[in-house]
Specification:
The protein has a seven-stranded mixed beta sheet, sandwiched between helices. It is 47% helix and 15% strand. It is built from nine helices and seven strands, in the order αααββαβαβαβαβαβα. The two termini are 31 Å apart. α1 packs antiparallel against α3, α3 crosses α4 and α7 crosses α9. By secondary structure, it is α/β, with parallel strands linked by helices.
């Protein structure tokens, strides 16, 4: 009986998450629409997404980000942000982690979600992972955003890995872009998101969300041929940090 009551509670808790996702979008819909009509006003959209959407969702769910910063992101500079991918809350946590405006590269399927998907497809770079043509278009779009002085966020595992996989292999697209544009790579470890808010509707709980922002990976002396090696170094760095947090 106790397990049944807990499961019902988690279902309502999950429903509260989706309400927290949608309510700010509905409240600020006209402003968000205005700021997504031009790429020039994306920084204003990003500010709202970070402070009036991501933060209220995390705190409203009882999630409390705790940052360990081994390097600091400099205002006005472009970066390639990467992290392990384990939960829907990775999006919100990444927004809180960086004050610098950045653009997500994300899967096309999310654009089909009601309301959220409307702004998702207007502000993110969408990728159909089964299409080589789509991946090429993503690469071109990311280049344009970097030229505009934005940062880019890519979860290099290419999706959320299966439950029994701590950290999947990294694809090298993020590293190629970073090398070609000579921007630093910012590896981050999200330690608790899978435990806090997994895809299993009957699991999860409020609590802290630990984030390590690792020393940046310099690309100034790198060539495109080094992208695979850099991806392996970044993956090993994040894997070791997960192990240090007791996640295996």
């Amino acid at each position: 009986m106790l397990a049944f009551i807990k499961n019902i509670g988690r279902i309502f808790w999950r429903a509260w998450f989706y309400l927290l996702v949608l309510i700010p979008i509905l409240i600020f819909f006209p402003i968000l629409l205005l700021f997504t009509m031009s790429e020039k006003t994306y920084p204003q959209f990003f500010w709202i997404a970070r402070n009036l959407w991501a933060r209220p969702i995390l705190f409203g769910m009882g999630f409390f980000p705790k940052f360990k910063r081994e390097a600091n992101i400099v205002k006005g500079k472009s970066y390639m942000l990467i992290a392990n991918h384990t939960s829907m809350t990775d999006i919100m946590l990444m927004l809180v982690a960086s004050k610098n405006p950045f653009v997500f590269v994300g899967k096309k399927e999310l654009s089909k979600l009601p309301i959220f998907g409307f702004f998702y497809k207007r502000t993110c770079i969408l990728v159909d992972r089964g299409s080589a043509r789509s991946r090429k278009a993503v690469y071109d779009s990311a280049q344009e955003r970097l030229k505009q002085g934005m940062s880019i966020c890519i979860f290099p595992e290419g999706g959320v890995p299966k439950e029994d996989i701590v950290l999947d292999n990294f694809k090298d697209g993020a590293f190629r872009l970073a090398i070609e544009h000579q921007i630093p790579i910012v590896p981050m470890t999200f330690a608790d998101n899978k435990q806090r808010f997994p895809y299993d509707v009957f699991k999860g709980s409020p609590g802290r969300m630990r984030v390590t922002i690792h020393p940046f990976m310099n690309t100034e002396d790198k060539e495109v041929a080094d992208k695979k090696e850099m991806s392996e170094v970044a993956r090993e760095l994040i894997f070791k940090e997960l192990t240090a947090y007791g996640i295996s």
